[in-house]
Every structure is written in structure tokens, then in C-alpha cells.
């Protein structure tokens, strides 16, 4: 197997994947938009490439494994906007293409369960843009595409501990609100499994086994830290940005049975409880 990966949009989840692949002898080229981020990427052992300053066309024709983590903009998917014809031409030569999407494509289900067969009915602009981007990637013939629909991502540096510790965390209450989430290391684990056993056309939800109301996560983080649980605030009384409020416009529980059966994936952190405890071990 050719152990070379082009990581387009080398952010939080892709960096977790790189930490697993680099010790296995992989060469990873990761794109970023800033020189500062490029230096950080280089320090981790990944070869940085500033895009869109650099041209990706030569790499898209040479590297057989490609991970796309860049989200769509107001004018659609930036990679396909720039390179659709090139991706279409080189598709038969590619071995594995992973696209990181979101469970937001399912929209609101009033706390009900969704799986990969659930109709896509996004209710937010972000979810609609992701649905459209998925469709464009899936329309490319012979592309060995794997779509991973991610629940709310958390992990080291993205846990609730800082806000809970400094007293800025809020337990916002909306009746029957429930979310699914995923630890970043479980995303990385799933991508490694997929890279080793490609299933072109596969679409997988990535979430843990324990969807719960968001206020429960904050309360548990406070208990782990041994600090008072933040008071409850009704969503009607909460001062929230439009983006933050949009997260509360959808409520659903996400199933992950397909990836377990297809790839043998089992979450390292099947609940936010084990995930938060693991983060706290490395929390300063």
C-alpha cells in the first residue's frame, strides 16, 4: 500500500489522524491557509502546503490517498470549485478519498434516531451546504469516495473544562434537546481502519454510543473538576450568537451501527464520560 496522504484542510481531526499514521511510516502533506499554521504543521512531522497560494493539481494526480476536511463556503466546495475536472480525470488512479461531513445533513428529528438511510433534510445553512458538497463529490464517476458524517467533535483542547473552571460555562436548557458527539481520537481510529480496508461509496456516521442533553456534559465536567455545577439557563433567556443558537435548532440521536459492522470500528470513548475523563488526565 502506498503510504502517502494528501490532507486538504489539515485541521483538528486530520491532525489526530496524522498522529496515528506518522509512526506507521506514512508521508503526509497537509494544506493550510497561513504561514503560522504551516510552521505548526511542519513541527508535527507533516509537510505543509499553503493553499490556495500553491497549486494542488500536480499532487491530485500523484497521491493515491486524499482526505478532504475543508468545509464548503458560501459559493460551495472550494476544492471542487477549483479542481473538479482534475479530480474527475484522476479519479480512477486514486485509491482512497475521505470526505469529512457532518450529521447536520439529517436536520432536526425532535430527539429521534437517525442512521445513514435517513433522508437528508438539513435545516441550517451549514447542513445544506454540506449536503450539496456531498452530492457533488458523489457525482464524480469512479471516485473511491468515503463519506464520514461527524457528530459534535470534542477532545484535547476542545473540551468544556476551561470554561467550567473559569466560571464561563453555561447549562442552557431546551426541552427534549439531545446531541450526539465524537471524540477526535475515535475519528482518527475510524479513518485508519478505512484507509486499510477501502469501501468506495461507503457512508458512515461517526458518533459515540451515548447521545445526551448538552447540559449533562457540562455538569459531568464540573463534577470531574470538583467545582460547582453551573446554573441552568432557559434557552429563551440565554444570550447566544446566531451560530450557537442554530445548534439548538436541531435535536437527534445518531446511530453508528454501520461503521461498526463494516469496518469493525468500536469507539475508544463510547460515552462523553470516558472521553472527558481521558481529556482531564492531560488537562493543565
Q: What's the alpha carbon Rg, rounded to whole Å? A: 19 Å
Encode the helix/strand succession as letters. Answer: EHEHEHEHEEHEEHEEHEHEHEHH
Q: Kindly estimate the percentage of residues that lie in beta strands according to DSSP.
A: 15-25%
Q: First CA to last CA: what distance?
A: 40 Å
**Helix coverage percent of residues?**
25-40%
CATH homologous superfamily of the domain at 4-153 and 181-208 and 253-268?
NAD(P)-binding Rossmann-like Domain
Keywords: NAD
Protein name: NAD-dependent epimerase/dehydratase domain-containing protein
Name its key features:
alpha/beta, Rossmann fold, 11 helices
In short:
The protein is an alpha/beta fold. 37% of the residues lie in helices and 18% in strands.
Write the layout of secondary structure elements.
Elements: E1 4-8, H1 12-21, E2 27-32, H2 35-43, E3 47-50, H3 57-60, E4 65-68, H4 78-90, E5 96-102, E6 113-114, H5 125-138, E7 145-150, E8 152-154, H6 161-166, E9 171-173, E10 181-183, H7 184-196, E11 203-206, H8 214-225, E12 232-234, H9 242-247, E13 253-254, H10 257-263, H11 272-281
Parallel strand pairs: 1-2, 1-4, 2-3, 4-5, 5-7, 6-13, 7-11, 8-10, 9-12
Helix pairs in contact: 1-7, 8-11
Textual characterization of the structure:
The chain is built from 11 helices and 13 strands. The chain has a 7-stranded parallel sheet, with helices on both faces. A two-stranded parallel sheet has the order 6-13. The chain has a two-stranded parallel sheet with strand order 8-10. The chain has a domain at 4-153 and 181-208 and 253-268: 3-Layer(aba) Sandwich (Rossmann fold), CATH 3.40.50.720. It has helices at 12-21, 35-43, 57-60, 78-90, 125-138, 161-166, 184-196, 214-225, 242-247, 257-263, 272-281, and strands spanning 4-8, 27-32, 47-50, 65-68, 96-102, 113-114, 145-150, 152-154, 171-173, 181-183, 203-206, 232-234, 253-254. With 284 residues, it is of the alpha/beta class. Helix 1 (12-21) packs across helix 7 (184-196) and helix 8 packs parallel to helix 11. Helix content is 37%, strand content 18%. 39% of the residues are buried.
Amino acid at each position: 500500500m502506498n503510504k502517502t496522504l494528501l490532507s486538504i484542510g489539515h485541521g483538528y481531526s486530520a491532525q489526530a489522524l496524522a498522529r496515528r499514521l506518522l509512526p506507521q511510516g506514512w508521508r503526509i502533506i497537509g494544506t493550510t491557509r497561513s504561514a503560522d499554521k504551516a510552521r505548526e504543521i511542519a513541527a508535527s512531522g507533516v509537510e505543509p502546503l499553503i493553499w490556495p497560494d500553491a497549486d494542488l493539481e500536480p499532487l491530485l494526480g500523484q497521491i493515491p490517498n486524499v482526505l478532504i476536511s475543508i468545509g464548503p463556503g458560501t459559493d460551495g466546495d472550494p476544492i471542487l470549485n477549483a479542481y473538479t475536472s482534475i479530480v474527475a480525470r484522476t479519479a480512477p488512479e486514486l485509491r482512497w478519498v475521505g470526505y469529512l461531513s457532518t450529521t447536520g445533513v439529517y436536520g432536526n428529528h425532535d430527539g429521534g434516531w437517525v442512521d445513514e438511510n435517513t433522508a437528508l433534510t438539513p435545516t441550517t445553512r451549514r447542513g445544506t451546504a454540506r449536503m450539496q458538497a456531498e452530492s457533488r463529490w458523489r457525482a464524480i464517476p469512479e471516485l473511491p469516495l468515503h463519506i464520514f458524517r461527524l457528530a459534535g467533535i470534542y477532545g484535547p483542547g476542545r473540551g468544556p473544562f476551561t470554561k467550567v473552571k473559569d466560571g464561563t460555562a453555561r447549562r442552557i436548557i431546551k426541552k427534549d434537546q439531545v446531541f450526539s458527539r465524537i471524540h477526535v481520537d475515535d475519528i482518527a481510529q475510524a479513518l485508519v481502519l478505512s484507509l486499510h480496508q477501502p469501501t468506495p461509496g461507503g457512508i458512515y456516521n461517526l458518533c459515540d454510543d451515548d447521545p445526551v442533553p448538552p447540559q449533562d456534559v457540562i455538569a459531568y465536567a464540573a463534577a470531574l473538576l470538583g467545582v460547582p455545577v453551573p446554573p441552568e439557563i432557559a434557552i429563551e433567556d440565554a444570550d447566544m450568537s446566531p451560530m450557537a443558537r442554530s445548534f439548538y435548532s436541531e435535536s437527534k440521536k445518531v446511530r453508528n451501527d454501520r461503521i461498526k459492522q463494516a469496518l469493525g470500528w468500536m469507539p475508544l470513548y463510547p460515552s462523553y464520560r470516558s472521553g472527558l475523563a481521558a481529556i482531564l488526565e492531560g488537562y493543565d
